[in-house]
């Protein structure tokens, strides 16, 4: 089974978890048969290692870590890959991959234009 773990930074705001949970629901409805869950790098549970454990317990043999980060930076380029590398050692039979940060996607400028036009 394939799993997608949407990883966000984490926040003390209770709205953040609600927004990420809604995102997971939307993504999940677009990916039938794929386990979609979320985890946070800091502050808010579940942590990334906990999220990976949940995916593996759910039957995942492939996990795509989807970065819900706008830009590259220390977290996206160093911290999260290090956590995934540790998970790879823990689960050697699971295939791991990490997406680019969402800000690198070609459609992001259009999303900004939409937001600007809605304002």
Overview of this protein structure:
The protein is α/β, with parallel strands linked by helices. The chain has a single domain, classed as Rossmann fold, CATH 3.40.50. It is built from 4 helices and 4 strands. A 4-stranded parallel β-sheet has the order 2-1-3-4, with helices on both faces.
Report the helical percentage: 40-55%
Largest sheet: 4 strands, parallel
CATH topology: Rossmann fold
Strand content: 15-25%
Low-pLDDT windows of residues: none
Tell me the CATH architecture.
3-Layer(aba) Sandwich
Instruction: Report mean pLDDT, rounded to a whole number.
Output: 96
Strand order of the largest sheet: 2-1-3-4
CA-based shape: globular
Question: Helices and strands, in N-to-C order?
Answer: EHEHEHEH
The total strand number stands at 4
Q: Mind telling me the C-alpha Rg?
A: 15 Å
Q: What is the domain tally?
A: 1
CATH class: Alpha Beta
How many H/I helices? 4
Class by helix and strand content?
alpha/beta
Taking the alpha carbons of the first and last residues, their distance comes to 41 Å
Summarize, please.
This protein has one domain: Rossmann fold (3-Layer(aba) Sandwich). The chain has four helices and four strands, in the order βαβαβαβα.
Keywords:
119 residues, alpha/beta, Rossmann fold, 4-stranded parallel sheet, 4 helices, 19% strand, globular
List the helices and strands and how they pair.
Elements: E1 2-8, H1 14-30, E2 35-40, H2 48-57, E3 62-67, H3 74-90, E4 95-98, H4 108-118
Parallel strand pairs: 1-2, 1-3, 3-4
């Amino acid at each position: 089974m394939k799993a997608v773990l949407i990883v966000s930074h984490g926040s003390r705001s209770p709205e953040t978890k609600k927004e990420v949970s809604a995102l997971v629901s939307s993504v999940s409805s677009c990916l039938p048969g794929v386990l979609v869950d979320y985890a946070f790098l800091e502050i808010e549970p579940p942590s990334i290692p906990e999220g990976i454990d949940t995916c593996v317990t759910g039957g995942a043999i492939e996990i795509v870590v989807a970065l819900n980060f706008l830009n590259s930076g220390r977290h996206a380029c160093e911290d999260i890959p290090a956590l995934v590398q540790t998970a790879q050692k823990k689960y050697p039979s699971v295939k791991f991959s990490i997406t680019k940060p969402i800000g690198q996607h070609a459609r992001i400028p259009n999303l900004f234009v939409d937001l600007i036009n809605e304002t």
